[in-house]
Design brief:
Length: 167
């Protein structure tokens, strides 16, 4: 009669170890164990799992929070950004001025890397900073940016828009 514990252990060892690493007698022993299992089970392996374990395995997952999971970088939601540039005059230099404004902010605040959005809605160009979920977060950032860049603080404002979840 085969010892089930020894058979399982031998199978696990045989599956994990490469045949070239096994000693020749261990390889033979593993092959014999497999052959013995095949003969004894008539090709059918029966696995018995206690009912309490089955209940745990097939129990539906209860979610207390029915909101969908949020994945950074993938999900969009309504939030706020700080608009630091908006202009429609001097069409030939608008794009470069909008990008320069974003670059200046990044140079002083590297925490906004990947959160500078420069885009055009004809005839204007815009640069917006951040992905803030609440008005409080956006207000703090706005105050910080206005203090750091007083020369264009009067142009800065908080805008409600679709944001990308970062954290």
């Amino acid at each position: 009669m085969l010892n089930p514990g020894k058979v399982i252990l031998s199978l696990a060892l045989a599956a994990l170890a490469a045949p070239s690493l096994l000693a020749q007698n261990e390889a033979k022993e593993g092959a014999l164990v497999l052959k013995a299992m095949e003969v004894a089970s008539d090709g059918n392996v029966k696995v018995t799992i206690p009912d309490d374990i089955l209940e745990l395995l097939f129990k539906p997952i209860e979610r207390k929070d029915e909101t969908p999971a949020l994945h950074p970088g993938l999900n969009k939601m309504t939030g706020y950004r700080i608009q630091v540039f908006s202009d429609g005059r001097n069409q030939h230099s608008l794009e470069s001025r909008a990008k320069a404004r974003g670059g200046a902010i990044l140079a002083k605040f590297p925490k906004y890397r990947g959160q500078v959005y420069t885009f055009s809605k004809s005839p204007n160009w815009y640069t917006r900073i951040g992905n803030f979920r609440t008005t409080d977060e956006a207000s703090k950032a706005l105050a910080e940016l206005k203090q750091a860049f007083p020369s264009f603080a009067s142009e800065m404002r908080m805008v409600k828009c679709q944001i990308t979840l970062v954290k």
